[in-house]
TrEMBL record:
Regions crossing the membrane: 43-62, 69-87, 128-149, 161-182
Protein's name in the database: Putative manganese efflux pump MntP
Membrane topology field: Multi-pass membrane protein
Keywords: Cell membrane, Ion transport, Manganese, Membrane, Transmembrane, Transmembrane helix, Transport
Superkingdom, natural source: Bacteria
Role description: Probably functions as a manganese efflux pump.
Entries under Pfam families matching the protein: Mntp
The UniProt record lists the keyword Transmembrane: yes
InterPro entries: Mntp/YtaF, Put_MntP
Family of the protein in this entry: Belongs to the MntP (TC 9.B.29) family.
Length: 191
């Protein structure tokens, strides 16, 4: 149980950062906004864990070949779009975490690793229902905290929050790509 909770916390870190940025961008932490954003992040995280578990060993080699590139591409695209729009001083921000398409894209991009986790759990014959539920609950809790904290921090900081948010999204994408390419090769060299 402790390992599953630790795994859930690790998986939810990217969602936490997106939630912080989202909270700062929306500027208010009404219950409905928290439920929408945190709910989407948690639901996709849980769903992709279950998906990975069902896919199992057969599909593993295909997912591992491109998952990091997909996450990198989505996050960089959204991050650059936010930065460019902020620099043009557009009144309507392209980073609207309450927009279904934007949130779905972010949720998928930050949850692709959950597919690999689900896949790993299937390889060691772990039943998926409890781990997926724990992953969903932990992601929801951490994302809710992130939205509320991001909102409060965004109100106190008089920075161009959209530019900061765009940079953070790009950095998350680069981090995912780095972990799956450079770090993976370094790990393989040690074996």
């Amino acid at each position: 149980m402790i390992q599953i909770v630790a795994l859930a916390v690790g998986l939810s870190m990217d969602s936490l950062v997106v939630a912080l940025t989202s909270g700062a961008a929306i500027g208010n932490h009404k219950t409905i906004n928290v439920l929408k954003i945190a709910g989407m992040l948690a639901f996709i995280q849980m769903s992709l864990t279950i998906f990975g578990w069902f896919v199992g060993f057969t599909f593993a080699c295909y997912i591992e070949q491109f998952d990091h590139w997909l996450a990198f591409g989505i996050l960089c695209f959204l991050g650059f779009r936010v930065i460019v729009a902020s620099l043009k001083d557009e009144e309507s921000s392209p980073f609207d975490p309450l927009n279904f398409k934007v949130m779905l894209g972010l949720a998928v991009a930050t949850s692709i690793d959950a597919t690999a986790v689900g896949l790993s759990l299937s390889l060691v014959n772990v039943e998926i229902l409890l781990p997926a539920l724990i992953i969903g609950v932990v992601t929801f809790m951490m994302s809710s905290f992130g939205i509320i904290f991001g909102c409060k921090a965004g109100q106190r900081c008089n920075l161009r929050i959209n530019i900061t948010g765009g940079i953070i999204l790009i950095l998350i994408g680069c981090s995912i790509l780095f972990q799956h390419t450079v770090m993976a090769r370094t790990h393989m060299a040690f074996l």
